[in-house]
Amino acid sequence: MTEFWLVPIAFMTSCLTGIIGMGGGVLLITLMPGLLAPAAIIPVHACTQLASNVSRAAFGWRNIDLGIIPAFLLGALLGGWTGGAVYQSLDLHWLPAIMGALILLFTWVPLPLLRGEGQLALALLGFYQTSLGMVVGATGPLGAALLLRRKQQRDWLVVNTAVYMSVNHLVRILAFTLVGFSLAPWWQLVVAMVLAGIAGSWVGTALRHRVPQLDFQHWFKVLVTVLAARMIALPFFPLG
After folding, report:
1. What are the average pLDDT values for consecutive 10-residue runs of the chain, which has 240 residues?
2. CA–CA gap between residue 193 and residue 4 (Å, rounded)
């Protein structure tokens, strides 16, 4: 039953993302190893984050920009196919350590930014995020710089980050299904985490205008670093 500790965690991380637009998915996946079987971490995370992102987009539907979807979807489909092949080749015992190392990389190493703000950049973002997401799980912040070049208003950024991440998670769930993963053994946990994620999105959306736009990046990076180090250690020092 320790896996059900993930339900309140899903609520809190979804609330965080509803307020600031990113970060909750990364925090959630860094807390899942040790509470859930390695094979289920990324698929369950994808289901939970799909609900969280769809609900967050729905609560802010007036700001949805449908023009970002077609190119991103095309790239995401290609990325899901590529990432699925990589996922099948992994030794799942070492998956938490691989995820932790990649999260540290994304947190501290400046990654090449996609140039431009047009349809090609969106397609490349879809491929980049979805293929990496099949292995690391949480890649939401990677697209923030591209969306910032299109518009810097916070509500627009929060809602449209949720839109493209909804596409990302939906494609990855389809890819995991096609490679033979079944969510049936975890359906109760998935339902509970989905409901918690939706509730967190609603609360975060309600709180967004009450929270000042502070620079949270430093302390967020410190927290993610600690949790990623825990992920790397788990295959060597399993809990329990």
Report:
1. 88 82 78 87 90 86 88 93 89 84 78 62 86 77 66 78 89 92 91 91 82 64 81 76
2. 8
